Amino acid sequence: MKSITATLDNKYSEPQKFDKTYNVMDHIDSSRSVEYQAVGSNVYSARSGAKVVKFRLSDDRAWLDPSSVRIQYKITNSTEEATKVENLYPLKAHGFFNRLRVMSRSSLIEDIGEYNRVHEMFQNLKPDNETKCEFIEGFKNSMSLNTPIATDTTDPLDFFTRIEKGKSMVVNFVPLSGLLNQSHYIPLSFLPLEIELELATDATANIIDKKSAKGRTGETYADDNGVSEKWQLSEFKLLCDQKYFSPIYNNIFINMMTQENGSYKIPINNYTSIYQTLQNTGPIDINISKSVHSLDRVYVSYYIEPNGGQRIPAQVAQQVHLKQYNFFYSPASFPDNMRYNSDNDIKRMSLRIGSLNFPDSPLSSNQVCYYYISKAHPETSIPLLEYNLTKFISLFNLERAGASNNVLARGIDTNNKNLSLYLEWPSAVADTVPNAPPKPPQYVHVVMMNELMVNIFNTHVDILE
Q1: Which helix (H) or strand (E) holds 133?
Q2: Are 378 and 403 in contact (CB under 8 A)?
Q3: Domain boundaries in the chain?
Q4: In this structure, which CATH number among 3.50.50.60, 3.30.565.10, 3.40.47.10, 2.70.9.10 belongs to the domain 2-464?
Q5: pLDDT tens, 81-102?
Q6: 337: buried, middle or exposed (CB in 10 Å: 19+, 13-18, 0-12)?
Q7: Alpha-carbon distance 302 to 309, whole Å?
Q8: Is 244 exposed, middle or buried (0-12, 13-18, 19+ CB in 10 A)?
Q9: Does pTM top 0.85 for this prediction?
């Protein structure tokens, strides 16, 4: 990638007239809102049937506006229960999918594992106005620690959208994708896309399940207001806007692409997800080596099974909406209340690249971690209490200066260098100790964001890191 970027300006915008940030009114003839149907099966479920949703996007003249892309589907409550009422309570529109892949001309552009958790993490870092739009397009659930837990006198189900037996609901979501979250129009004639979404294997990963009734007598919901764990997804569509350039400008682009070494370059952010079990509280070095031209950011979060005797406050542990993909755990609380407990906060966290540590002084508290998050994401609106308990996200920002995604080589070259995450949590306290604090995390989740360039030629596509 260095050999190419060295010859370019600090913005991939050649020709700039095809960048959506340019004043394009003179050369765009028309714009159409279109939809692509999923190829293959029409019905998808975690329990049986197809589990990978595929879209193929291509057009001889159209340019895809990436900011307009939405994934739409219909979800149906397929319970067969005849004697009890079982309603379906889905949580987030993106929560059913644990992997996203984007390909073109046999080249893999993106492959995001733990997709629902990565998507949820970045959604938490968005401002309120953006997340509200996504909630409205989705299941219209706004979840927080203010939601009551299930007891004989409180019922949390009324706080969530309900789908009755045999009924359906249509929802959209904005896919998290580096290619679809950048500012350049995408020429579908030279970059036809294949987008895949893979369902999570756990059918209860994104719904309120029957185990959530733990706080009630008999640990079950009432016969006239129970929960369904059976669902199916169908009628998948990809909604988007396509731009059509005038014949003159279209010919200019085709001539550029068909000349010798003619190409069109699109810079994107690439996300690599690593999910790993923590064997002990540390100190521990976790190898996360990735050789790239420019590593920009490393996000770190943690998880623990909330209902496994972890001594987490009941108001957190019994939240019906907390799942593996949306629980960003911190043990820095007391076992019987949700206030901050400095004695159980993280002791040390730092990133090592070769012989260098980032930052110079390790992250050693919840407050310091939030400082680094807020510098890179000043628009984030995570409430104080939730950051301390269920949305604890840390960030190592390796960008040398604040810049837009179109600026080249913002981060650190990690080729031929070892990368490791250094962690240390307070030692676990035995269950026999009175008022023992919450247990340390069981898993660590690392998301690395690096720059990637999609170099489009007349006959093929090069992916350069």
Answers
A1: helix 128-137
A2: no
A3: 2-464
A4: 2.70.9.10
A5: 999 999 999 999 999 999 999 9
A6: exposed
A7: 17
A8: middle
A9: yes
